[in-house]
Design brief:
The structure holds two protein chains of two kinds. By secondary structure, chain A is of the alpha/beta class. Chain A folds into three domains: 180 residues, 3-Layer(aba) Sandwich (Rossmann fold), CATH 3.40.50; 50 residues, no CATH class; 111 residues, Rossmann fold (3-Layer(aba) Sandwich), CATH 3.40.50. Helix content of chain A is 38%, strand content 21%. In chain A, helix 1 crosses helix 2. Chain B is of the alpha/beta class. In chain B, helix 1 crosses helix 6 and helix 3 crosses helix 4. Classes of the chains: A alpha/beta, B alpha/beta. The interface between A and B is large, with 46 and 35 residues. Strand 11 of chain A pairs parallel with strand 2 of chain B, so a sheet runs across the interface.
């Protein structure tokens, strides 16, 4: 049993290595830099690649190149760096490159509050790249989550051949907690499927559960990749039928599994007032619930794909649902979209770079309850 | 193997306009590969966006057409995972020097073992003839209808200054030389840049009243002069000439060599 004090960023680095990370490219930016620093010390000793690129655009594109050449590849960034990566993330969705991006959220917009917590990048994680696409977004609340969710992110990226975003926040990435890891613990590691023979191989010609089984660049199978709408052989086309089917498939391959992918935690699910939270904020809510069983928590571990039906079912017993988040309303509108007309949904939000305290939540919750009575 | 063995015929015709020089660069590249006895297993092509970046998809080699300006960092990722493969980047003047300029100089600084072929047609062809960082001052484009007031980059000086260890320039008129430089670039251990001046009779030609590919090639014949010849000419005589040849060819540890050394050092401990 390993018992150590780990920082969230460290846990992310160890988790990535456990998952099989073989290529990391990144660019320094607060508050995600520690992930790169940790990996710069760990990866060379394992004969795996760490490279500091000239910017975040170079970083995201380098991991896509490495991934398509066979690597389990990752980058980490924050704030403006995440904005710069959107072009590459959209490209990875289109060419179906398995990659992991850890975005440690800081205060925005723009350079904003580099060293402070925020949760303002939720919708950017879902909709950052232009055009229709699907993406998986995971939200860790602890150092332990940083370790296991990073592994999960790699597994999902490999399975769906799609970018997966580990959407951490400054508090989760910087806090230190005791980690206990059973070295004998069996952790499932998923590796992408590969074609066996080159005869008759078409880059996007062999689908399994709507995910293409692709050769690596360098296998010499004649793999042909483009971010343009493409046919099964990977060659560009502007044909309406191909275009429609491709865009729908790259979304459908993930969305059809949303029941399975949408993970959550429920505490006191029968409570009249149910809080919805994710990331570091769920720690605040857990603090409240510990002393007060009038309240419950629905914590989202997965933010996207978002399972509306699950949210309807999980909030069924509540009289009211209150989303608590460190932005002016992002997950709030997703929840509202799911249960609008069924029961009232309220928002408690805090921006400005501080974590919300239990007292602040309780005070605002009482105001909401009093106003509705 | 010969050139035609490397072509995906089912993808023809090319996307390029009649008289375009890109096909010549494709043929020169495939000739170089054939002359080196490389096979489909030895080469990976990466490209960005633009007319020239469409070139690799007509070949049977593993190829990836990426984002505008991003072929070089993409190829860096590929090369580090596939160090035994020859990774060749096909890019244009806008792709490599404007939107991809930062990646170009940093890959040169790192001396990543890539072969970068820059198709220089002095214009953005795919989008219809806008001026690029390699459009000479005074020339016209659809975004410089009164003449370009900006200076052009000198690719050779730029990548030389950034640390490239093989740098050559030629033109599509000089086919044999193009083949030779691409061959040298592929075999060079380190960051190689080959600038190939190509004709764009349709967009560059239309804006600048030289709409004949033949005329543009004759311009190359008369104005692209070798390093040796240039030595005997005065500054005035050189003012409208472009110097071609091998400018840099030096042995230096590549990024991969340096990485290998680091790993050896770490594993000894």
């Amino acid at each position: 049993m390993i018992k150590e004090l780990w920082q969230g960023s460290e846990a992310c680095a160890y988790g990535a290595i456990k998952a099989g990370l073989s290529f990391f490219a990144g660019y320094p930016i607060t508050p995600s830099t520690e992930i790169a620093e940790n990996l710069s010390a760990l990866l060379p000793k394992l004969n795996r690649v760490f490279i500091q690129m000239e910017d975040e655009i170079g970083s995201i594109v380098a991991i896509i190149g490495a991934s398509l050449a066979g690597a389990k590849a990752m980058t980490a960034t924050s704030g403006p760096g995440f904005s710069l990566m959107q072009e590459g993330i959209g490209y990875a969705c289109m060419v179906e490159a398995p990659i992991v991006i850890c975005n440690v959220m800081r205060g925005g917009p723009s350079t904003g509050l580099p060293t402070k917590i925020a949760q303002g990048d939720v919708m950017q994680s879902r909709w950052g790249p232009h055009g229709d696409h699907s993406i998986i977004v995971l939200s860790p609340e602890s150092v332990k989550d940083m370790y296991y969710f990073t592994i999960k992110a790699f597994n999902l990226a490999e399975r769906f051949r799609n970018p997966v975003i580990l959407l951490a926040d400054e508090v989760v990435a910087h806090m230190r907690e005791k980690m206990e890891i059973d070295e004998g613990e069996v952790i499932e590691i998923v590796n992408r499927k590969k074609p066996i023979k080159s005869e008759g191989y078409l880059t996007y010609g062999n689908l399994e559960d709507e995910v293409p089984i692709m050769a690596n660049l360098g296998d010499g199978f004649g793999t042909s990749i483009t971010g343009l709408i493409h046919k099964e052989d990977g060659f560009q086309t502007a044909d309406f039928e191909f275009a429609r089917e491709l865009v729908q498939r790259i979304c459908r391959k993930i969305e059809k599994h949303k029941k399975e992918l949408f993970e959550y935690e429920v505490l006191n699910g029968d409570a009249e007032t149910l809080f919805v939270a994710y990331g570091a904020v769920s720690r605040t809510i857990k603090e409240i619930i510990r002393d007060d069983n009038r309240f419950g928590l629905l914590r989202f571990k997965t933010l996207f794909p978002f399972d509306e039906e699950a949210v309807i079912n999980l909030t069924r017993k509540a009289k009211r649902v209150i989303v608590v988040e460190l932005n002016l309303g992002q997950v709030y509108y997703e929840v509202k979209r799911a249960i609008c007309g069924i029961k009232p949904v309220y928002l408690i939000s805090k921006v400005g770079g501080e974590l919300i305290t239990p007292d602040e939540v309780i005070k605002q919750t009482e105001e909401i309850i009093n106003a509705s009575n | 193997m010969q050139v035609t063995d490397f072509i995906r015929e089912e993808r023809l015709p090319f996307v390029w306009c009649p008289g375009c020089g890109n096909g010549t660069v494709l043929k020169a590249t495939l000739t170089a590969i054939a002359n080196l006895n490389l096979t489909q297993n030895d080469v990976i092509f990466a490209s960005g966006i633009g007319c020239s970046s469409r070139t690799p998809m007509y070949t049977k080699f593993d190829n990836i057409h990426s984002l505008h300006g991003r072929a070089i960092p993409l190829a860096t990722g590929i090369k580090l995972m596939q160090p035994d493969k020859k990774v060749i980047v096909m890019t244009g003047d806008g792709d490599a020097l404007a939107i991809g300029g930062n990646h170009l100089i940093h890959a040169a600084r790192r001396n990543v073992d890539l072969t970068v072929i820059i198709f220089n047609n002095s214009i953005y062809g795919m989008t219809g003839g806008q001026v690029s960082p390699l459009t000479p001052q005074g020339k016209r484009g659809t975004t410089a209808p009164f003449g370009n007031i900006e200076d052009a980059f000198d690719v050779v000086e730029l990548v030389k200054g950034a640390g490239a260890t093989y740098v050559a320039r030629t033109g599509t008129y000089f086919f044999a030389q193009t083949v030779k430089y691409i061959k040298n670039g592929i075999m060079h251990n380190g960051f190689s840049v080959i600038e190939v001046i190509t004709q764009c009779p349709v967009y560059y030609g239309r804006s600048n009243k030289v709409a004949s590919p033949g005329e543009m090639l004759i311009w190359q014949k008369e104005n692209l002069i070798s390093i040796e010849k240039a030595k005997d000419l005065s500054k005035d005589e050189l003012s409208d000439k472009v110097i071609i040849g091998e400018f840099v060819n030096i042995e230096k540890e590549s990024y991969f060599d340096k990485r290998k050394k680091l790993l050896e050092r770490l594993n000894k401990k």
